[in-house]
């Protein structure tokens, strides 16, 4: 049954009214000259009770209320003006605008539908309507013409041969693409994480979308029955007393459901079935047309200002999507830190996973074939973790691993630039565990074959220096020719031998600003290669700065600063502030050098021994290494009671000994274990030999560094400990703070994988990337 039509143009005056001719679309039960017709000359003069009859549409009731609110003696023409104003201002039933439709996605194994943001929803709706050849509304058509013309969505479905050349419609921070059927979004940068999507036009009361076929059927019938009728305000036209006796203006039977229209906005969904069961269990579901908020084109993901490529380490075999989860965890932590600490920053970083292990062949499964079947679970775990390190140490498989990592890095960057052509920010690499070593080797263009080249050069020189009569002249002449050819190759070929050893397949197609080496064994790898400070940050390094971030209990992580000068082992790495401390927002560049407490104790005890006490007693008082390291992790009992993850966030603790008296320094120089940092020497000097370093340590402990009395009073203790050794150009080692409960073997094992959700590290990354320290008056400790 169709509802009575509402005539939208009232007469100029009731006395001058002439009824319009009847049309075939007029319902048979209500003629055009009926007293209940709004165009009737007696409509506004009807008794109020008759106007309130359920047979009268709600629009006329609202009109009567509006007229009654005016003065009673107003004449007919004014009432006609009110009617015209009401008709013109009220919305009418027409096709939904693109902004009124909302698209949703559903996580796997979840039942709740999550709405896309405004821009993603509009992009999906434009794609849907272009493919269905449905016209866009004026506002969205303007947006499409101005900003989305390069998507070429106007091409018909039959001409999709060049679909690869079209830009993808990407959503959710540009990490997912939409399939051709508009039913699913697939990840762009990783695998097996698809999500179902749904177009929402009709919704339940909690604005969860109905299934698309059901919504389309309801929408079609709604437009057929109520097109151009006025939409009243609110969610219902009936009072509480009228809910039990609503008229049914239209009804639709589809897909096991009954849809009933009691008014333009009173629509309900009923499940078909036995009348008794329907009475006992079935519930009536009120429906809503259009989403509760219109989609806004400006409601979009934040602008991307930094791209961070997250490279995994060991243990990813069989867990290809784990790095995607970890990358999102780091991104969520950084974004949360920025929202709290940098609310004025509108841009955001993008963390993209780089999964390289699954694409490698390596030994073709030979290791699994030779694995002993006993204790298979433990052996399988070792094969998927420790074997990756052994593969990388092998000259046979190392090249395959490096090329695989480089290929995935270049692929991810290329895809990102294709979907974000306007990006002009910096690119960084976040390498975890073995991944940091591989990325470091790629950035420094390291090749183990260079060691063999040096060995060959040395062997040739040693051969030619010998005066062995057994060496024939021909062999000596061939060796000299080989040496000459190698020298000419170095002189005339750009890059020399190194250019031959490092191919284009092992080089990145973009520049990297920062390398975040997290839980990295890079230090021990460099040690096995005989590396020095000049090798750590060579001129050929394609990276501006390295941050070596580690947990103190991580058994895989190593420091890097002692490569420059051995005495850096007595200097603490920078301990990151707690994310609850305002000073964590400031730069770490101006922090002073801190000396380990156990080394201060050692200096004090050696001082006592020099004054005539027993050396053994002094050594016993200095404590063992384990006890000393434990103490250096937590500065004082106050830190432990505070529950704060960073000792620096609390009041500087008192020293365990009178360091000033032990070293005969003014108290102004040494304050409770905190030491000022003098100007660092940025001009690297030649590293001292081990003998000279040992003698300098001895001089530090027994002679207090013979520098003269005046200079001794001015130099900070840390500077005197480092002596004339090579200084780091900037701090490299950064240490996270352990929780109070992290003192078990299990904590040691899991600390290597605890970086992804660490809030202190997330704020540190935000600090480094955006370099917006807090104002001086805000940079106060939390205890102040």
UniProtKB/TrEMBL annotation:
Signal peptide interval: none
Residue span(s) of domain DDHD: 508-771
Top-rank lineage group of the source organism: Eukaryota
Positions with biased composition (Pro residues): 1-27
Bias (Basic and acidic residues) ranges: 611-624
Low complexity: bias regions: 687-702
MF-aspect GO terms: metal ion binding
Residues in coiled coil: none
Pfam families: DDHD
Region described as Disordered: spans on this chain: 1-41, 607-661, 679-703
Biased composition (Acidic residues): 625-638
Family of this protein: Belongs to the PA-PLA1 family.
Protein name as it appears in the record: DDHD domain-containing protein
Source organism (scientific name): Caenorhabditis briggsae
């Amino acid at each position: 049954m169709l509802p009575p039509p509402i005539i939208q143009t009232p007469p100029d005056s009731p006395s001058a009214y002439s009824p319009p001719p009847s049309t075939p679309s007029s319902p048979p039960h209500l003629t055009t000259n009926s007293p209940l017709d709004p165009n009737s000359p007696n409509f506004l003069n009807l008794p109020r009770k008759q106007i309130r009859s359920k047979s009268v549409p709600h629009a006329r009731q609202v009109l009567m209320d509006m007229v009654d609110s005016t003065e009673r003696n107003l004449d007919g023409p004014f009432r006609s003006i009110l009617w015209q104003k009401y008709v013109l201002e009220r919305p009418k039933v027409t096709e939904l605008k693109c902004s009124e439709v909302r698209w949703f996605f559903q996580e796997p194994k979840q039942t709740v539908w999550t709405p896309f943001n405004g821009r993603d929803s509009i992009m999906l709706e434009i794609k849907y309507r272009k493919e269905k050849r449905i016209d866009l509304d004026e506002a969205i058509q303007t947006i499409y013409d101005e900003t989305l013309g390069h998507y070429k969505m106007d091409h018909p479905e039959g001409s999709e041969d060049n679909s690869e050349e079209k830009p993808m419609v990407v959503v959710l921070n540009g990490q997912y693409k939409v399939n051709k059927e508009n039913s699913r979004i697939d990840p762009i940068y990783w695998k097996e994480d698809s999500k179902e999507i749904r177009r929402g036009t009709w919704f339940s009361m909690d604005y969860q979308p109905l299934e698309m076929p059901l919504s389309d059927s309801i929408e079609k019938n709604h437009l057929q029955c109520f097109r151009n009728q006025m939409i009243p305000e609110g969610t219902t036209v009936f009072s509480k007393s009228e809910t039990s006796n609503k008229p049914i203006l239209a009804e639709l039977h589809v897909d096991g459901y009954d849809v009933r229209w009691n008014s333009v906005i009173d629509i309900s969904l009923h499940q078909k079935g036995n009348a008794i069961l329907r009475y006992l269990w079935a519930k009536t579901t009120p429906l809503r047309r259009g989403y509760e908020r219109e989609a806004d084109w400006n409601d979009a993901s934040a602008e991307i200002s930094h791209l961070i490529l997250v490279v995994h380490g060991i243990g990813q075999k069989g867990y290809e999507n784990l790095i995607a989860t970890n990358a999102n965890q780091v991104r969520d932590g950084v974004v949360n830190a920025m929202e709290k600490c940098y609310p004025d920053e509108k841009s955001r970083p993008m963390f993209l996973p780089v999964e390289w292990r699954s694409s490698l062949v390596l030994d073709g499964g030979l290791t699994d074939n030779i694995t002993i079947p006993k204790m298979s679970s433990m052996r399988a775990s070792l094969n998927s973790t420790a074997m990756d390190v052994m593969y990388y140490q092998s000259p046979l498989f190392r090249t395959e691993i490096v090329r695989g990592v480089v290929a995935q890095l270049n692929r991810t960057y290329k895809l990102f630039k294709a979907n974000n052509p306007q990006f002009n920010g910096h690119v960084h690499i976040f390498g975890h565990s073995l991944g940091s070593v591989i990325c470091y080797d790629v950035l420094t263009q390291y090749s183990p074959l260079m060691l063999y080249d040096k060995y060959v050069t040395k062997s040739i020189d040693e051969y030619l220096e010998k005066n062995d009569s057994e060496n024939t002249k021909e062999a000596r002449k061939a060796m000299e020719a080989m040496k000459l050819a190698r020298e000419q190759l170095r002189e005339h070929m750009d890059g020399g031998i190194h250019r031959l050893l490092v191919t284009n397949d092992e080089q990145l197609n973009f520049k990297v600003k920062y390398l975040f080496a997290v839980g990295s064994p890079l230090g021990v790898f460099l040690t096995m290669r005989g590396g020095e400070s000049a090798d750590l940050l060579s001129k050929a390094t394609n990276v501006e700065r390295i941050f070596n971030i580690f947990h103190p209990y991580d058994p895989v992580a190593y420091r890097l600063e002692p490569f420059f000068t051995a005495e850096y082992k007595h200097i603490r790495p920078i301990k990151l502030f707690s994310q609850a401390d305002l000073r964590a927002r400031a730069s770490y560049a101006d922090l002073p050098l801190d000396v380990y407490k156990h080394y201060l104790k050692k200096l004090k005890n050696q001082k006592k021994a020099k004054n005539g006490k027993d050396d053994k007693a002094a050594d016993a008082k200095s404590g063992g290494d384990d006890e000393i390291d434990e103490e250096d992790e937590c500065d004082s009992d106050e830190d432990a009671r505070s529950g704060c993850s960073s000792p620096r966030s609390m009041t500087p603790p008192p020293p365990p000994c009178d360091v000033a008296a032990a070293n005969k320094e003014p108290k102004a120089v040494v304050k409770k274990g905190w030491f000022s940092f003098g100007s660092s020497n940025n001009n690297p000097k030649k590293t001292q030999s081990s003998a000279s370093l040992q003698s300098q340590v001895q001089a530090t402990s027994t002679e207090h560094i013979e520098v003269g009395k005046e200079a001794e009073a001015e130099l900070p203790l840390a500077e005197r400990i480092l002596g004339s050794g090579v200084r780091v150009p900037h701090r490299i080692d950064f240490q996270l703070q352990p929780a109070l409960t992290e003192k078990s073997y299990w904590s040691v094992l899991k600390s290597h994988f605890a970086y992804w959700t660490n809030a202190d590290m997330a704020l540190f990354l935000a600090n480094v990337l955006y370099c917006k320290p807090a104002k001086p008056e805000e940079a106060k400790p939390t205890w102040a």
